[in-house]
Structure formats: structure tokens, C-alpha cells
């Protein structure tokens, strides 16, 4: 009787231990990497129900799943590139894994900054262009990409530069054109192009020249069209200074350029030296006498 | 002479980072800064460098607090643009599921790789070690150690540099 009970207990112990050994523990398989926009498949094994968590700085997901099934995450579930952590919880047992969701290699958008938006003509490396490259989900594409930059002037002249992105960014410096006017700076990466308009304005006045003529009791002073050294008319509003020195007396008049020239009227001085300047650029001098 | 100046500059940077660590508290990550000699195209001034690193490290602390407390508004002080939107949306998802995560950074190995010609963006690469803990309805689900490479782009604002792009991925 006692021997029979012992045998029964032994058999039960063996049965339980076999059951425990063969009962499948929950397990989790995750890919090392996946690409944003593609399906991510997580494998599980075991039996029964479990909770699956996928967390990262770009998503937080919880799903109740059946162990042994594959779990598919679509691009609508996971699209922000980054490191994701997976936790599988079943019957108090937790399994974990990590994977990286990488940016897609296909450029969908670029962030393009051209500076400055207005600059003088003929400035070497005066213009800079910086471009950051993104995929369709706004992830920075860190793999090298070919970027091209083109500065097109209104007269058809073009300047091009190429650069390879590094860590998602490429940049160039370009020269401003000799001719004033708007120019389009284009940046292109992977078929995506962005345009910025850059206003190239005349540089400092160059070879400033004025003439003087009497008009009644006054003398009219007028410059020739004020241009920079490349022949571009300086913008209206540029200040031109006329100075009349007569003995110890000196009179100065600041006049904005209007329609390309600066013009002013001064009382007719008996004997004076009249000079003209714009910024640091000196123009000609006129020795004016009452006899003129 | 140049080497001596570089060494002195590195010492100053190290000192600045140590100051930040001491000011913030004892439970702070270790920070290693790579040499900034080859950063370009714009020359990187010492003061800018110190500010960027300080603001970036503080952004990590703020991000951790925002994820732990499910409070996306905390991000506003240190994140902007795409980074702010992405992190805020994730916290919103977490809140809906009653999940909380914490991102406790243990070490940073930072290299500034780009300072734009006009001074409007700085990009850095950071080899980060951190611990992530997941909680569901307040109960701990588990934690994992992570070692990942981050790319961050910061832009200047009125008060500080803010993180505009914040992206991890790829083993270091």
C-alpha cells in the first residue's frame, strides 16, 4: 500500500517536472534594424496571452498578443527613426529586445537656408547655403547624399557647387555675381529642389563725379549716375555728402541718391572748394569762384 | 604654440562641463567632449561651445522628466520644431496608454560635427549610454540599458540653444 503511494507520488512528480520542462517559455525575436516606412515584424514563441510594449522617443505602443504569433508593425505605427525597446510580458516573465528604426534612404524633403538674403555684388564666398536632408517621415538621412547648389542670375549666368552630406547636412559657399539684381539659389538632393531668392545689390559707390552750375544766387550740384566699381547703379537712398568749404566756413549737406543721382542746391559761395563723398569713397573737387 | 593653446582650450571646456555637473547635482552623467578643433565651417567660440553642451545636456534631463511625468509642456524650454513635435506626440501616446518611461542618461561622448556658416545651427553626435525604465499604470514592466548614437541639431533662441533635431539609431 505504502509502496503504491510512493510510486504514485513519484509518477506525479515526474509528470509535473516533464510538463514544466516542456511548457514553452515566452520568447521574443526582434530585428536588429528596420527601415522607416517598411513593416517591422517581431516574432514571439510560447503559449498563452502576453502584453507587448514597444517604446522609444518616437513611439509608445502596447498590444495584447497571443504568444507564438508574429506581430507586425506598419509604417503607420512606427516611422520616427530611433532606438526602440521591446518588452514582452507573460505570466510574470518579461523578455526584452531592442532594435533601430533607420531613416529611409530616399530624400523626401530638404531644409535649405541661404544667407544672407541680400548682399553686395562681387563678394567672394559671400553667400552660404546649408541643406539638411530628410526622408518622408521627417527623419534626418544620415547616410551620405549628393547635394548640388546652383546660383542662377537673371542674365543666365550660373554658378554651381556640389557637396556630399555628412550626418545629414551639406553646405557650400558661393560668390555673389558682378551684376546686381535678384538671383535664384537652388539646392537639390535626390530629386528634391528648394529655391531661395538672393538679392545682389551694388557695392560701394566708385568713381564718384559731380558737376556744378550756377542758377541765380545758388549753385546746383549734381552727381553723375552713382555706380559701384562693376558699373551697377547704387540703390536709391544711398547717402551722398556734399561739402562746401569757404575760408573757415564749412557747410555739409547729406543727400540721398534719387533715380541714380544725388542733387542739391547751395547758396552761391564767393570762393569755395566743393567736394563730394559717399561713405568712405571720395569724389572730385570743384574750386568755385564768384566769377563762374 | 598651437598645441599648447588647444590643450588650454580643452582644459577650459572640461572645467566648464565639470562646473555644470557640480551645479546640477551628484546624480549626473559622465560627459566626454571630443576635440573641437575641426568643427566648421564657422569658427566655434569657447562660450558658444560651453552653452551648446550645457543646453544639450539639460535637454536630456528635461526630456526624462517630461516622459516620466507625461508632461509634454516641459519640453518647450529645450526642444523646438521637429524634435518638440516628435517627443510631444510620443508622450501623448504614452499618456493615452497610461505608460511612463524614464530615460536616465549615464554617459555622453559628444562630438560637435558642424557649425553652420551663418551660425544658425550646430550639429553634434553623441554616443550615449542610458537606462530606460517602462511603467504601465505605475507598475514597473522592466528596464533596459541602451548604448546608442544620437544626432542632435541645435538652434539659437532668445535664451538658449534648443534642440531642433533629436534622433537616435545605430550602434556606436
Fold blueprint:
The complex is a heterodimer of chains A (292) and B (172).
Chain A: H1 2-22, E1 27-29, E2 33-35, E3 40-45, E4 49-56, E5 60-66, E6 71-73, E7 82-90, E8 93-102, E9 109-115, E10 118-120, E11 127-134, E12 146-153, E13 158-164, E14 169-174, E15 181-189, E16 192-201, E17 205-206, E18 210-215, E19 218-223, E20 227-228, E21 239-246, E22 249-256, E23 263-267, E24 271-278, E25 281-289
Parallel strand pairs in A: 2-8, 10-16
Antiparallel strand pairs in A: 1-3, 3-6, 4-5, 4-7, 7-8, 9-11, 11-14, 12-13, 12-15, 15-16, 17-20, 18-19, 19-23, 21-22, 21-24, 24-25
Chain B: H1 2-24, E1 30-33, H2 46-69, H3 81-97, E2 99-115, E3 122-136, E4 139-156, E5 161-168
Parallel strand pairs in B: 1-2
Antiparallel strand pairs in B: 2-3, 3-4, 4-5
Helix pairs in contact in B: 1-2
General description of the model:
The complex is a heterodimer of chains A (292) and B (172). Chain A is rod-shaped and about 145 Å long. Chain A is mainly beta. Chain A has 3 domains: 101 residues, Immunoglobulin-like (Sandwich); 93 residues, Immunoglobulin-like (Sandwich); 85 residues, Immunoglobulins (Immunoglobulin-like). Helix content of chain A is 7%, strand content 55%. The longest helix of chain A has 21 residues. Chain B has one domain: Roll (Nuclear Transport Factor 2, Chain: A). Chain B has 3 helices and 5 strands. In chain B, a hairpin with a 2-residue loop joins strand 3 and strand 4. In chain B, helix 1 runs parallel beside helix 2. About 8% of the residues of chain B have low confidence. The longest helix of chain B is centred in the middle third of the chain and has 24 residues. Helices cover 37% and strands 36% of the residues of chain B. Chain B has a 5-stranded mixed sheet with strand order 1-2-3-4-5. With 172 residues, chain B is α+β, with helices and mostly antiparallel strands.
Amino acid at each position: 500500500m505504502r509502496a503504491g503511494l510512493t510510486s504514485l507520488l513519484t509518477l506525479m512528480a515526474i509528470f509535473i517536472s516533464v510538463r514544466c520542462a516542456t511548457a514553452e517559455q515566452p520568447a521574443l525575436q526582434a530585428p536588429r534594424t528596420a527601415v522607416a516606412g517598411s513593416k517591422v515584424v517581431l516574432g514571439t514563441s510560447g503559449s498563452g496571452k502576453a502584453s507587448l510594449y514597444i517604446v522609444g522617443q518616437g513611439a509608445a505602443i502596447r498590444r495584447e498578443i497571443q504568444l507564438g504569433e508574429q506581430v507586425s508593425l506598419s509604417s503607420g505605427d512606427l516611422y520616427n527613426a530611433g532606438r526602440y525597446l521591446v518588452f514582452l510580458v507573460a505570466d510574470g516573465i518579461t523578455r526584452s529586445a531592442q532594435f533601430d528604426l533607420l531613416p529611409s534612404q530616399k530624400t523626401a524633403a530638404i531644409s535649405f537656408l541661404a544667407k544672407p538674403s541680400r548682399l553686395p555684388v562681387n563678394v567672394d564666398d559671400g553667400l552660404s547655403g546649408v541643406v539638411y536632408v530628410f526622408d518622408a517621415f521627417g527623419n534626418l538621412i544620415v547616410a551620405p547624399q549628393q547635394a548640388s547648389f546652383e546660383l542662377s542670375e537673371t542674365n543666365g549666368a550660373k554658378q554651381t557647387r556640389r557637396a556630399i552630406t555628412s550626418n545629414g547636412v551639406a553646405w557650400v559657399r558661393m560668390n555673389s555675381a558682378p551684376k546686381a539684381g535678384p538671383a535664384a539659389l537652388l539646392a537639390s538632393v535626390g530629386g528634391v529642389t528648394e529655391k531661395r531668392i538672393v538679392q545682389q545689390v551694388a557695392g560701394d559707390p566708385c568713381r564718384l563725379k559731380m558737376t556744378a552750375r550756377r542758377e541765380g544766387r545758388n549753385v546746383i550740384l549734381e552727381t553723375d549716375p552713382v555706380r559701384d566699381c562693376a558699373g551697377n547703379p547704387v540703390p536709391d537712398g544711398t547717402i551722398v555728402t556734399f561739402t562746401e568749404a569757404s575760408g573757415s566756413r564749412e557747410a555739409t549737406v547729406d543727400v540721398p541718391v534719387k533715380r541714380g543721382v544725388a542733387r542739391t542746391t547751395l547758396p552761391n559761395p564767393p570762393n569755395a572748394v566743393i567736394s563730394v563723398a559717399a561713405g568712405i569713397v571720395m569724389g572730385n573737387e570743384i574750386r568755385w569762384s564768384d566769377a563762374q | 604654440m598651437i598645441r599648447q593653446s588647444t590643450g588650454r582650450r580643452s582644459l577650459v571646456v572640461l572645467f566648464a562641463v565639470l562646473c555644470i555637473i557640480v551645479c546640477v547635482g551628484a546624480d549626473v552623467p559622465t560627459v566626454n567632449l571630443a576635440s573641437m578643433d575641426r568643427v566648421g565651417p564657422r569658427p566655434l567660440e569657447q562660450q558658444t561651445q560651453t552653452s551648446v553642451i550645457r543646453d544639450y545636456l539639460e535637454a536630456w534631463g528635461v526630456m526624462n522628466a517630461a516622459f516620466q511625468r507625461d508632461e509634454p509642456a516641459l519640453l518647450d524650454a529645450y526642444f523646438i520644431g521637429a524634435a518638440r513635435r516628435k517627443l510631444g506626440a510620443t508622450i501623448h501616446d504614452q499618456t493615452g496608454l497610461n505608460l511612463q518611461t524614464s530615460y536616465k542618461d549615464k554617459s555622453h561622448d559628444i562630438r560637435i560635427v558642424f557649425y553652420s556658416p551663418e551660425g544658425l545651427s550646430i550639429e553634434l553626435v553623441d554616443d550615449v549610454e542610458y537606462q530606460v525604465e517602462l511603467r504601465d499604470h505605475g507598475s514597473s514592466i522592466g528596464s533596459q540599458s541602451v548604448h546608442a548614437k544620437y544626432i542632435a541639431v541645435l538652434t539659437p533662441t532668445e535664451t538658449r540653444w534648443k534642440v531642433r533635431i533629436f534622433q537616435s539609431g545605430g550602434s556606436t
